[in-house]
Design brief:
With about 80 residues, the protein is an all-alpha fold. It contains 4 helices and no strands. The chain has one domain. The longest helix is centred in the N-terminal third of the chain and has 30 residues.
């Protein structure tokens, strides 16, 4: 492998990591908590991913998600 091909591979890996950090992670975290995936992806782009993760964790599940979980739990029992 030449230095050029190693550099290209490193750039591709870095881009995949950035995409995961700025798009897939916030979307997955937001959906899991019953929040807007698109809104949180945009917020992660405006603020840093670290602050976005902290805010999502502090906010927790949306009220709608909590209601849905309670109803689902009641139907199981």
């Amino acid at each position: 492998m030449t230095e050029e091909s190693i550099s290209i591979i490193a750039i591709i890996i870095a881009l995949i990591l950035i995409l995961w950090l700025y798009i897939f992670l916030p979307a997955k975290m937001a959906k899991k908590r019953g929040r807007s995936a698109i809104g949180w992806v945009l917020l992660f782009w405006i603020i840093s991913p670290l602050w976005g993760i902290i805010v999502l964790l502090v906010l927790g599940d949306s009220k709608q998600k909590i209601r849905e979980d309670i109803i689902e739990e009641l139907h199981r029992n």
